[in-house]
Amino acid sequence: MRWIALQALTPTESAPALMSDAAAQHALACIALGFTPRVALLDEAVLMEVSGSLRLFGGLVRLHQLLAQRLQYFFESNQALHQVIQAHGATSLIALARLRLLRQHSDAAKTRVAELPMHTLTAVRPHLGVLERTGCRSWGDLVRLPRDGLARRFGAPLLEALDRARGALPDSYAWLTLPEQFDEKHELDALVIQSSALMAGVAPLLVQLQAWLLGRQSGLSAFKLIWHLDKRRDVPPTGELVIRTAQPAQDLRHVARLVAEHLGQTRLPAPVHSITVQSLETEPLLDAAAATGSLLMQAHQQGDSAAQLIERLSARLGQAQVCIWQPHADHRPEQMQRWVPAQGEEKGKLQGTIKSIAGGPRIACRSGLNGLKNSANEALYPTWLLPEPLHLAAVAGRPVYQGPLVRLAGPQRLEATGWLMRHDPASSNPTAILPAIRDYFIYRSQQAGLLWIYSERLAVTPESAAQRAWYLHGFFA
After folding, report:
1. Range of the domain at 342
2. 311 lies in some domain
3. Going by C-beta distance under 8 Å and a sequence separation of 6 or more, which residues neighbour residue 37?
4. What is the pTM of this model?
């Protein structure tokens, strides 16, 4: 069996640590669960039994490297100054002893088991003074002592610890498990009256949330932030904010920026004394690099993605101010697309609209202008439509716009009658409707480029037969 022992050392600099020792140890344990399900907390260290994971990660050396990279990225991304040390051994107590010795000597990994100092074994510490006076200095010295006399003088736990350290007895630990949902509460140092100041309490909770996500190999899609208000005020006991992301995230720096944007627009009705963060929706990820689509470090995206930019703008300006066009099932050109908020209230709507932006344009034209002349089903639609069609002058029955126009393609016939007919805004009768009967053409202008122009075919009457109204409806890019 192979064991790895981990410990996060508190920085010795004068600057205060951004994470407590307990929080750092819990984060180590959560991240370790991303490599093996057999993780335990013992004294000041986190123990990992990795025998079943060596083949998956390519051996002990490779597992050490991946674990160190993951831990370094976690602490650096959260601006924590803790230094993580790790040691390995054939048993858990050997790995723990070498970890303790590593804090004093850099070559502890090469130390033979028999030469490990006695103080590195927890069960020896209560009897360390007596044993040193008898001449014992290492584990080998303890093993050479008579077992019966050692048991009578120092008790059976010392012998059991020696047997476990040597592998004669199996290790028995309560393996660490993570809850299905993240739900943690943080007490603020003082009452907070400004919503923007709540980020000081949200930040440590997001660090714990990220460690929980790494341990469960999941990405966060939605979570709830709850602030608990002063009970002495005549206000509701809590307020809350739900944050959703279009893409599951393990790196929560973007999530922290979203929370800051929302809190900047929130007004607190009373002082806040504590904050709770609850996970609502998570999605399993194969690895922390899965969100990038590549396992290569150089392929990781630099900066915010388009989806993250949309989410931040929606949080800052309001959802109604950041819109995206969506296709709509209608054959009338002015009804074929609608503008909707890029970040909707529902998860499915949010993902569909934001991901369509992040995916980029995917437009494929199956035919050119020549195909449009013969088939209306292969019509090309303009990039921009005017809010209202512009009536054009006609010379000799042909439209004119900033000079003469050259006809390239058309007609493409469109008819909307019956319940599809539009209301006539110029009519005194509000119930009066006009049929939409049009022939669309593509014209070229020397000044304006390609134009989308239609002629409105009026009802066939002796007066209207000689008339043909032309309208400019859109421009091609």
Report:
1. 322-358
2. no
3. 175
4. 0.65
